[in-house]
Amino acid sequence: MADAKYVIRAKNLRKSYGKTEVLKGISLKVQKGTIFALLGPNGAGKTTTVRILSTLLGYQSGEVTVGGHDVRKEADKVRSAIGLTGQSAAVDELLTGRENLEMMGRLYRLTTKSAKARAQELLEDFDLVDAANRPAKTYSGGMRRRLDLAVSLIATPPVIFLDEPTTGLDPRSRIAMWNIIEKLKKDGATILLTTQYLEEADQLADRIIVIDGGKVIAEGTPNQLKAKVGKDRLELTFSSVKEYQKAAKIIGDKSVDGAAADEYMLTMTINDINKDVAQVLEKLEKARITIASMAVHKPTLDDVFLSVTGKTKSVEKKETN
Ligand SMILES: Nc1ncnc2c1ncn2[C@@H]1O[C@H](COP(=O)(O)OP(=O)(O)OP(=O)(O)O)[C@@H](O)[C@H]1O
Ligand SMILES: [Mg+2]
Question: Is the pLDDT reported for residue 258 higher than 60?
Fold first, then answer.
């Protein structure tokens, strides 16, 4: 039995399509009960990796186990332990949300009664009760994504794969999805998700690997990665040069690291978004300086690439898969 601490493992995983190698030796380990993020741009190899880990796709070399089971030799055992929500999901558009869930429940051999009960439970957890009796094709993007996830959870799998769970969602739906994912972890699941957003990996993940062109280019905890790419930045704009100069003086030259003269804008790095921003605002208010606008910039995936590789991320043709 493999080391039970790590529920998902891949060692030196390689995958080619014809002559093109798209995974060039990916290694990862996901600890039980944690959230692990696979972060990378379009074409990095995220979906390919998830499909291999979830037994849907073969590979050329490497070792891959889920729950201690080899994904090739014991694919059935792996399948019964996982839930998968992908970029192409298994919802029947013509059935209602409830029907989709109950049907999946019966596929997993739940009794009619427990399939109904589990469907109701998931509809409640995922805030889909009001829409439960409408065909899935009438759902909004966010509702549809929640239904996709709910359907994959019907059998309460201990290991969950989520391929870009929030791409294309508006901020509110994204946060709703984040809450759901955090609750799954609280309930004991081990989760591997893919994302193109550093912010999302930062919010959810205990550990992150960054992949690009089929290779791991960075890994660590969110804090370790963020420390590499630099801090959040606060940007303040003033409506006149006078206000701007007063503010620069008060905030102190040391923390002000740039100013665009025509816009009267000050930018500064901040360590703690909760404390530091409030402190700056308080200082300015005491001095009766009015701010025209204010923004906090978080490091992006681009910043990660820039700091790790010295260049911005490789741009591939936009794919929709
Ligand atoms: N069936 C296939 N045949 C040939 N090449 C493929 C196939 N599927 C994927 N690829 C290629 O493999 C590489 C990795 O694709 P993959 O779908 O894993 O990327 P991804 O990180 O999921 O990207 P996205 O963010 O766009 O979903 C890409 O260059 C893609 O073009
Ligand atoms: Mg993908």
Answer: no
Q: How many domains does the chain have?
A: 2
With 0-12 / 13-18 / 19 or more C-beta atoms within 10 angstroms meaning exposed / middle / buried, residue 210 is buried
Ligand 1 atom closest to the Cα of residue 51 is: 18
Antiparallel, parallel or unpaired: β 232-237 and 265-270 = antiparallel
Residue 277 domain-assigned (yes or no): yes
Residue 10: inside a domain: yes
Report whether residue 195 contacts ligand 1, using a CB cutoff of 6 Å: no
| Tens digit of each residue's pLDDT (9 = 90 or more) over 57-77 | 999 999 999 999 999 999 999
Which atom number of ligand 1 is nearest to the Cα of residue 319?
A: 26
Confidence at residue 9, expressed as pLDDT on a 0 to 100 scale = 97
Q: Inter-axis angle of helices 301-309 and 222-229, to 10 degrees?
A: 70
Residue whose CA lies nearest to ligand 1 atom number 5: 17
The CATH number for 254's domain is: 3.30.70.100
Is 52 a pocket residue for ligand 1 (Cβ < 6 Å)?
no
Q: Write out the residue range of the structural domain in which residue 251 sits.
A: 231-298
Shared-domain flag, residues 179 and 237: no
Q: For the whole prediction, is pTM greater than 0.85?
A: no
